[in-house]
Every structure is written in structure tokens, then in C-alpha cells.
Specification:
about 230 residues; alpha+beta; nine-stranded mixed beta sheet; 6 helices; 13 strands; elongated
């Protein structure tokens, strides 16, 4: 069996991730780095990823809908933290979150026990789409900021509200600007982070695993010159 099929059979990631693991020199067979997916491996050889045997490495990739007032701490015993939302199985993992959503905001947060994955995602410097719902139908004037792109306002005459949205890589500034608008009905929501949108069926205070296509999209393109 070649190393690509071996790693796939042992649930070491999506096909794109496995190729990335190999190109990044993170896979060893009997302590020798292997970077070709065609390399043959036998059952009696010692295969490791990031120094861990493949049987002991089952990475988890999670998408949370963070409630208001919750911090991005994954310790299960911490009150009002993402960790307090984990089920018993996930509580046993050494999870970390991308710490870029203030506690006063709600919405999309990513977490994983694969630190290289989180580092790769952070390096992409993805933009976030933030939005807030205001009472009334008067479109507000949002303070100008060069960090904000695609600022839009959508008036709902039926429900008498205005939804203001913006795209930015400066999440803290975006949350602050939207929170300071008058007549806010609810907290600022991060509705999208890079290529991943907050699922409409993911209730506040719950989470799910990322799908394979979401994981690959968040990693961004594999630069063979620098990996």
C-alpha cells in the first residue's frame, strides 16, 4: 500500500491535507521523512505524522456558533467558554481556537487540535463578514475605515429592520464599529470567515465538525515553492 492510501485509511485528513502533510515533511516512515504519495509502506513499519503514530493521531476540526459573552477558551471547566460547550469525547482533546472574535460578538469560530492547521489558516489572513440588525428602516452612517470593504445595508420594510454588513480582516475594529451603531437589536454576528459560512442550521451555542471541502478551502492553495 502506498503512503497516501495508508494515511487515508487511518483517517489522517482529507486527500488535500494528506498531500500537504507529505509536502511539508511532516510524515516519517521508520524515522525517515517521506514526501512522495507513491512511497510504499508495510504494516510492520512505524508511520508517524508530526512525531505521533498514525493510530494515536485523529485530528479534530470544529466549527462553533459562539454565544454572546463567551470567550475562546477551550478548557472544559471554564465558565462561559467554548470549552464548556464540548461533549465528553471532545473535552479530552487539546483543542485551540483561532482567537480573533471578541466575546461581545457571536457567530463563526474555528477550533482544532491540529496546530499546524490553525497556523496555516491564520497565515491566509482570511476576511470575515460581520453583520448586525438595527431597529427601524433608517440606514446608518458607518464611520469610514480603510480596513472595511463591501459595506452594505439591507432594509426590511416588513420587519422594520436594517441589516448592516461589512467585510474586513480587522475583526475587532469591525465589531466595535457595528456595535456602536444606534438601535441594535442583537450582537454583531460573524457570518463568514474566508470561504466558510456560518451554517443556517447551526444553533447558537452548538458546534459541528468541518467538512472535507471546508478544511481544504481554509488551508488555501499549497505553495510548492515554500512548503
Amino acid at each position: 500500500m502506498n503512503i497516501e492510501r495508508y494515511l487515508t485509511a487511518h483517517r489522517q485528513g482529507t486527500p488535500g491535507q494528506i498531500f500537504r502533510l507529505l509536502r511539508q515533511g511532516r510524515v516519517t516512515v521508520d524515522d525517515q521523512v517521506v514526501d512522495s504519495p507513491r512511497t510504499d509502506v508495510t504494516s510492520d513499519q512505524q508511520v508517524r505524522v508530526d512525531g505521533l503514530t498514525v493510530t494515536g493521531r485523529q485530528p479534530q476540526y470544529l466549527l462553533f456558533n459562539k454565544p454572546v459573552g463567551f470567550v475562546l477558551n477551550l478548557e472544559p471547566t471554564s465558565q462561559r467558554s467554548l470549552g464548556s460547550l464540548l461533549n465528553p469525547l471532545d473535552q479530552q482533546r487539546s483543542l485551540k481556537a483561532l482567537a480573533n472574535l471578541p466575546k461581545e460578538a457571536i457567530g463563526l469560530v474555528l477550533a482544532s487540535d491540529d496546530e499546524r492547521f490553525l497556523a496555516d489558516v491564520a497565515r491566509q489572513n482570511w476576511r470575515s463578514i460581520l453583520q448586525i440588525v438595527l431597529a427601524g428602516t433608517t440606514v446608518p452612517d458607518l464611520p469610514a475605515n480603510v480596513a472595511f470593504q463591501d459595506v452594505t445595508s439591507r432594509v426590511d420594510t416588513v420587519h422594520q429592520t436594517v441589516t448592516v454588513a461589512l467585510t474586513t480582516t480587522d475583526v475587532a475594529a469591525g465589531v466595535s464599529a457595528l456595535s456602536n451603531l444606534a438601535h441594535a437589536n442583537e450582537p454583531v454576528v460573524r457570518a463568514q470567515f474566508g470561504p466558510v459560512a456560518l451554517p443556517v442550521d447551526l444553533a447558537v451555542g452548538t458546534y459541528r465538525g468541518l467538512f472535507a471541502n471546508e478544511i481544504d478551502a481554509l488551508n488555501g492553495p499549497l505553495d510548492l515553492k515554500t512548503e
